Amino acid sequence: MDTDAQLSERDRSAEPATGEERSRSSRFRARPSRNPRLQPLASPRGAAHAAWGWLTGGGPLRRAGVLLAVCAAFVLLLSSLVTQPFVIPSGSMENTLRVGDRVLVNKLAYRFGERPRRGDVVVFDGIGSFVQSAPKENAATTLVRKLASSVGLMQPAPTDYVKRVVGVGGDRVVCCDKRGRIAVNGRSVTEDYLYPGDTASRVPFDVVVPPGKLWVMGDHRSASRDSRDHLGEPGGGMVPVDRVIGRADWIGWPLGRWTALERPDAFAEVPDPDSRAGHGGRARGGT
Fold first, then answer.
1. Side-chain-side CA neighbours of residue 50 (13 Å)
2. Residue 1 lies in a domain
3. Whole-model pTM?
4. Domain that holds residue 112
5. What is the spatial distance between Cα 151 and Cα 2, in angstroms, rounded to a whole number?
6. What confidence tens digit (pLDDT) does each residue in 57-112 have?
7. Radius of gyration of the chain from Cα atoms?
8. CATH of the domain at 231
9. How far apart, in whole angstroms, are the C-alpha atoms of residue 143 and residue 150?
10. How many domains does the chain contain in total?
11. Which secondary-structure segment (H or E) carries 272?
12. Which of 12, 42, 76, 266 could form a disulfide with 46 if both were Cys (CB 3.0 to 4.6 A apart)?
């Protein structure tokens, strides 16, 4: 009996030539499953390609939503790192800044070794100097306020302030000379930016600004709560330099008040705090 021949014959008959004898499923090529749970893990390149396809595809509503999200992310990044609109909440800086003005705060002004200078208008976090602790606020409210204030739609945090730098670390600031002016390091200062009719201060003071701190005052002295009002509190009303958010460089809104906030010449003749004049008690030019 030829067993090899029989086996060969069986092997040939195991694969029928006609479609009637083969399984129906064998006539179709296997298709990949469309169920995402059954798909193999995509490569990073494939995932990025799919994400890009989703972003650029779809209807006009999806494209508009994506564009809006990208613009919002860019604005938030810009306001966090470079410049941020700041809504003026009170009249303490009139007439330089008015209630409702939007100033553009330069957050890079003091990032690369530059320090606040006398005459600068700065925005700072007053925790530890003007207020001892941040007020309690709902987390959702805080998030909404931060997002809205970052684009100038809402007032900033209640602990953020805008004032003018009058004294820097080492300065001796005295009020007032015979003509009612403040003196910095023995030099009297004529503050042309003060609110019309205001004096330099109705409350006398004589302070030496510690290193790394600032003495700040509002331009509308009779309507400003500033360093003078916190002399008896912890910190003595001195603002730490590292609490400064940035320098207000421009009024951006309303359009009719669009202007640059230049540093005034009032402090141009003030000597350095380490000079002999900075340690004297008399104000030069105070007659």
1. 7
2. no
3. 0.69
4. 84-279
5. 93
6. 666 776 666 666 666 665 555 555 568 889 999 999 999 999 999 999 999 999 88
7. 35
8. 2.10.109.10
9. 11
10. 1
11. none
12. 42
